[in-house]
Amino acid sequence: MKNIIGEKTRIMIVDDDKEIREVISVLLSNENFEIIEAGSGEEALKALSANIDLIILDVMMPGISGYQVSRVIRELSNVPILFLTARTQSSDLVLGYSSGGDDYLAKPFFYPELIARVKGLLRRYTVYQGKKVHTRKSEYIEWGELRIDCCRNMAWKCGKELELTSTEYRILRLLLAHPGQVFSAQNIYESIWEEPFHSGDSNSIMVFIRRLRSKIEDDPHHPVHLVTVWGKGYRIE
After folding, report:
1. Which pTM value belongs to this model?
2. What are 43-57's pLDDT values in tens digits?
3. Which residue, of 53, 80, 91, 155, has the fewest CB within 10 Å?
């Protein structure tokens, strides 16, 4: 699935349950992905490299939890992370996104849904990282102190590059492309995830907005760029 001829997309599966790792490995190998397995958070961090394109990460593991692993990975890489877990309370979802996860799939899951989530994350990550070949010149969107390059998928504030995850970048680009326009949580979710919105997804959007504010605002608790329009949604001012 990589753009480089002959090079496969590499996925790391992190789960302390060997049977789950084997099932997922067979499923994704049949989709022509290259698989790396890790039975613990410690093993995953030791095996982490720039050649890994996506991580499927169990939450509840002995030793280091999936949330802790995700936080460490986020200090080193923007590789997409898909959480697998039996914990589906809204507080668990918020914690997962807060720790750096990009998507969340509850156990037990349908195999086609897993494959669809994996391919969707890889597609968005490929666009974000600029791995597709572009033949046109860079196209910038600027608003006040903020600037993004839509071809190279980079963002700056006052000339300093922002370290954004693929999801954070896509949300910022969506809002910057329509300054002053209010986007509801549903608008944002369906635009970024390209999936139907459910009431619980509002919490996910709130977490990503909070993370984005921590990177673009001088004072995230008193935002001046990414503001909340109470009862309606969010907008860039």
Report:
1. 0.62
2. 999 999 888 999 999
3. 91
